[in-house]
Amino acid sequence: MKLFVSLFALIGLGLVGCSDSAPDAATDLVVPQPAPGPISAKLEGTVLFLGDSITHAGHFISDIEAVIADENTTLINLGLPSETCTGLSEPEHPFPRPNVHDRIYSALEKVNPDLVFACYGMNDGIYYPFSEKRFAAYQQGINGIIEKVEASGAKLILMTPPPFDPEPLRAKGKLLPAGAPKFSWKAIYENYDADVIAKYSEWILEQRDRVDGVIDFREPVISFTTEKRKTTPDFTLSNDGVHVNAEGHKLLAKAILDALGYDAKKLDSIDPAVIATIHKRQMLMHSAWLSHVGHTRPQMIPGLPLETAKIAAKLIGTEKPVSLFNTSSLSGWKGDTSIFSVEDGMIVGRNATPVASSTYLFTEKSYRDFRLIFDVKQTVSPEHSTMHSAVCALGEQFTDKGDNEFGFKGPLLMFCNDWGIWDAYRRNRTVPEGHKGQLKIKTERVGDWNRCEVLVKGNRIRFVANGELVFDFTDKPEMLQKSPIGLQIHANQKPQEYRWRGLVLSENPGDKLVTLAE
How many other CB atoms are found less than 10 A from the CB of residue 432? Predict the structure, then answer.
């Protein structure tokens, strides 16, 4: 593919104004640019995508995964909204834009990719007229990516930023001329594409001899839009000029597939429902990887713990896993907020004063047949009680001693320091039947995170901790009922502290325990 900066096409898009400052049509119809050579890199092993909000949206990555359908290849999306490779930020931005160089070492170390794709530029001109100083910062930022990826041993493919389409914003009167006092993502320079993004893209294509490949995202978007506007003048792939829609992402995916020798036309024949399922998995893993690698951007909802996300992602398609916890508040839950709170993306249960009767943080919704996967950690210290906690389910919420309206009557699926089933206010210890004292398990990680899976189907209750089956119990039908699920802080005179994270639930699950060690 060649860099497509035809003045005819740009005028057709409205990307170049017909002012006295426009390039001379007789000599500058096309900026000469040799076509990129063939790319020898393959989509195999672990493939990392770095970029801004365009990459963050991730549709083109899901499209690629649908085409290659290779279980031995893992595509990891680490696109971050607002990100740059320069560290530049416009004054009107609500927070300093994150810089990929603040996290690239962590990304390369934790992902350990075989191949890296990087797409930057849209945010790096920060929506101003062209500036040699900003352009130099962009070149320095890309050079830094090249050096760091090369040092990691991974291959690198650079993509040009997609074009900025001013027409949707021009129609709304939201573009600014060159002499405006200030510019930002809300007030963009009217010739931002032709004067800035086109130059940045041309320079990216010139780096083909320094990296393992370059891919032009401009040409397919411009060509497609130009053709569509012949019959639909207001056609656009980007309502805000910056973020291409799902149709635009398909063009980006095809550009990558074509460049790497895949049959890009195959994408058109894949069932959209299949791609939608892949995208759900991709976005679940995307959030988890962002949190695992770390970043400096505020206002991002933390993802699931990485291993929990991998388990949940495998369930998508056969089950409908949902997060019970949004990582920022107790929305969807009810309980004593003097005991239960949210800290660092985790639910914390903590008492500083005596607890007269066991109290629970309940889901607002009730459940009967379900799979629940969660991580739990007990704070262990000389000051803290070693009393177990539990997930309560299949019973009844009631008002317990001490006017505790968050009490529970029914099965307690216990963990940490004691494991099994305690049937509260009914049969007491149920599993193991007749067991006296505490039940210890070899796989418990004392004072650390324990990954647990509860699987309830019909009257059968199974529990796995850190890959070990703790119990498999079938109860009498009349003993189990639909109820909220709760997290326990036990009746105690001493301080206790438990932390929970993950909390992924599927209703009407399959029959296989997905965390059980093979």
Answer: 14
- Name 92's Cβ contacts closer than 8 Å, sequence gap at least 6: 182, 184, 185, 186, 187
Name 381's Cβ contacts closer than 8 Å, sequence gap at least 6: none
Report whether 95 contacts 27 (CB < 8 A): no
DSSP 355: B
Distance CA 471, CA 411 (A): 13
Q: For the beta carbon of residue 78, count every other beta carbon within 10 angstroms.
A: 26
Nearest to 48 by CA among 374, 378, 293: 293
Domain covering 7-11+41-269 assigned CATH 1.10.10.10 in the classification: no
* Cα 320 from Cα 507, distance rounded (Å): 7
**Residues 134-165: tens digit of each pLDDT:** 999 999 999 999 999 999 999 999 999 999 99
State residue 38's pLDDT score.
64
pTM to 2 decimal places: 0.89
Domain residue spans of the chain: 7-11+41-269, 322-507
Closest among 384, 286, 311, 340 to 76, alpha carbons compared: 286
Q: Report the alpha-carbon distance of residue 16 to residue 19 in Å, rounded.
A: 9
Write the pLDDT tens digit of every residue in 496-515: 999 999 999 999 999 999 99
Task: Indicate if the pLDDT at residue 23 is higher than 90.
Answer: no
Angle between helices 198-205 and 132-152 (to 10 degrees): 40
How many helices and strands (H and E) does the chain possess?
12, 23
Query: What whole-number percentage of the chain has pLDDT above 70?
Result: 93
* Fold type of domain 322-507: Jelly Rolls (2.60.120)
How far from chain centre, in Å, is Cα 163? 25
Q: Where are the beta strands (DSSP E) in 131-194?
A: 155-159, 175-176, 188-189
d(CA 318, CA 507): 11
